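Researcher: Quick test of sequence recovery. Tokens follow.
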């Protein structure tokens, strides 16, 4: 499945670049688009040359049963996230082709009745059946596209909000892939000596990090700082005494 994963990622990168106004993006531009995403979202650095090599290997096996080997687990996870999948298992589940028992197909010939041999009522029932199946397929296709469409979010003031795709915001890395836990539980807060910094069992309730002006800011969950992209740190008694409960 790795060859399908890398080919799908390059296909999406091509569309993302076209959305920015570049009609015929080069292979290098597409690889750079993916490389920038992986570095920004997973903090894993992989050069565009390595990505192009993976794509070249995948293209050679496009009509073959073989697969390519992607050594870095972070690359596989990052590509799945880039394509909107929860994880690699989710990607495999949605893209795996169902196996067909060919022995049944060869051993049991199917004889189709002709229209002339069927009663009129039977023909009408068949037409209704096919129409119903067609409608169900259309509805299922629409539902699938609605539930798996790419969703985005941006940081505003002290929390994330869901927004439509914006090429300009994506280009300056303001646009992030939608994550429900970031929308629900990740917020910037103001703290004082009276703030509850820990659960009764001692686990952390507050994380901190510096903004671009090197000022300390506090958040309700672990993760990356929305502006700098650096990993937030759990609050400690030392930080509380030195920076918050200052006499």
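Model:
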């Amino acid at each position: 499945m790795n060859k399908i994963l890398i080919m799908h990622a390059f296909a999406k990168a091509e569309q993302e670049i076209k959305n920015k106004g570049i009609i015929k993006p080069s292979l290098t531009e597409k690889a750079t688009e993916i490389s920038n995403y992986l570095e920004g979202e997973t903090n894993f650095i992989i050069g565009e040359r390595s990505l192009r090599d993976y794509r070249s290997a995948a293209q050679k096996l496009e009509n073959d049963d073989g697969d390519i080997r992607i050594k870095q687990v972070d690359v596989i996870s990052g590509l799945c996230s880039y394509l909107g999948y929860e994880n690699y298992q989710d990607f495999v589940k949605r893209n795996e082709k169902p196996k067909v028992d060919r022995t049944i197909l060869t051993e049991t010939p199917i004889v189709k009745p002709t229209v002339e041999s069927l009663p009129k009522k039977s023909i009408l029932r068949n037409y209704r059946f096919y129409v119903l199946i067609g409608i169900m397929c259309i509805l299922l296709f629409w539902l699938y596209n609605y539930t798996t469409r790419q969703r985005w979010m941006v940081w505003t003031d002290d929390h994330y909000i869901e927004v439509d795709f914006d090429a300009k915001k994506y280009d300056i890395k303001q646009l992030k892939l939608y994550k429900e836990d970031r929308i629900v539980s990740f917020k910037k807060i103001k703290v004082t000596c009276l703030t509850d910094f820990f659960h009764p069992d001692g686990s952390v309730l507050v994380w901190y990090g510096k903004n671009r002006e090197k000022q300390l800011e506090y958040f309700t969950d672990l993760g990356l700082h929305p502006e700098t992209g650096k990993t937030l740190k759990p609050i400690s008694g030392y930080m509380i005494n030195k920076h918050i409960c200052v006499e």
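The chain has ten helices and seven strands.
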